[in-house]
Amino acid sequence: MRGLRVRLLVALMATSLVTLLVAVLTLVPPLEHRLEANRLNELRQLTRTARFGVQRLPERILRPGSPSVRHLVADLQRRTGGRVALYDDQGRSLADTDPLRVAPETGELERLEDARLARRGDVREGVVRGEAIVVSGVRRVEGDRLTLVLRKPLGDTRAAAGAVRRAVPTAVIAGAAAALLLALALSRGLLRRLGRLRDDARALGEEGLGHEIRVGPPDEVGEVAGALETMRARLVDEESARQAFLATASHELRTPLATLQGNLELLVEDLGAERSEGAGAVRARAAVALGMTHQLVGLATDLLDLNRVDGDVPLVAEPVELVELAGVAAAEMGADAAQGPAVVHGIPPVHAFADPAAVMRILRALLDNARKHGGATVGLAVAREGDDAVVRVADDGPGLASEDRDRVFKRFERGTGADAPPGFGLGLPLARGLAERAGGSLVALEPDRGAVLELRLPGWSADEPRAPS
């Protein structure tokens, strides 16, 4: 029931079934009532016509079993197709077309009177035990009063209503089948368009803002697709403006920051030879300012690199020897860190097919992260695993909590347990972005102690005739 197609089919079929049932419930009882009313009206009209013949009967023949009376009653029976009976003013049956059903003397008429038939004009009528009954009094010239009773079974009317009821299951099945076919026909185009919109939305999330949303006819689905496409176009414009701003700002900041950094380095160098009173305090403040300048230069560089990653600047893919690059990166870290260079494992050459500058930037980010948050030892291992070239950077620090293994790769985010000098949280996100742009991956593993970050890149070997895709 989770699929829209199934729910739409169920809704349409349920609507059809409920409509049929409501139609049956609202039509069959009025149909029965209408048929009974028609039957009573037919008997009523015939009764009023027959009274003229009864009034002209001579007094001498008004006795039980009279041939003339039986002939009159039989003629009415042929016209009604039901039962006709005539009673005198004492309640005795003068003639009855169904003598086997004649009750004891006066009994039949008394039971009709007890039935409390409804009065309609000059007659009484109603339905008793499946029969339409009309009772009319006939006032004769001589002053006596006769009673004419016409009965007709409602079997044919009940049969018609029963036929309608018996047709309900067939109508329900036929209606459900028609609703199913109609739902399939109507939902096919709608669900195809909804599926296309769903695929476009997924592609927008997976591929980025470069995927355009296909807008169809101007209905509700088309309006949703159009709104999504308008939002995408606006985000593209805003992203372009943001990238242009970051590129301009980071580029413009690098020149004055480089100048400031150079001046501070000269100032620290000059103060290093100064032995006057107060020179130590000035030298300390200059060193702090130089350190902050280094951080600002690093931030400007990271922002420029992130802007290049977001801007889909193409990388130059070529064979790269990872052991050599890892050694250079470890040597750089060793020159800036008190704990010495990282240990490089993986003596046999390991080649990857990637951009050398991007790989070097990733290695520096990984080693810098291990230097800041790790322990005294940082290990760097390079190996070939299947079709991948793998670089692992390990440290013996406090490690990463399970909830931080993905968080540290988000921009401007740092691990909750990080106990290091404040940073901007851009190194690892930049490294992962460059790794993915190179067709690889960068993840945090779950070691027994410390933290291990694993970089995987497409491998390359000298005997390959062409560069891997």
Give a structural overview.
- With 469 residues, this protein is α+β, with helices and mostly antiparallel strands.
- 55% of the residues lie in helices and 16% in strands.
- It is built from nine helices and 13 strands.
- The protein has a six-stranded antiparallel sheet with strand order 2-1-6-5-4-3, covered by helices on one side. The chain has a five-stranded mixed sheet with strand order 8-10-11-13-12.
- Helix 1 packs antiparallel against helix 2 (67-80) and helix 5 runs antiparallel to helix 6.
- The model is unreliable at 102-107 (pLDDT under 50).
Topology, pairings included?
Elements (H helix, E strand, L loop, with lengths): L3 H52 L11 H14 L2 E5 L5 E4 L10 H8 L3 E3 L2 E6 L2 E9 L5 E9 L1 H53 L12 H53 L6 H32 L7 E4 H15 L6 E3 L5 E4 L1 H18 L4 E8 L2 E8 L31 H11 L3 E4 L6 E8 L11
Parallel strand pairs: 8-10
Antiparallel strand pairs: 1-2, 1-6, 3-4, 4-5, 5-6, 7-9, 10-11, 11-13, 12-13
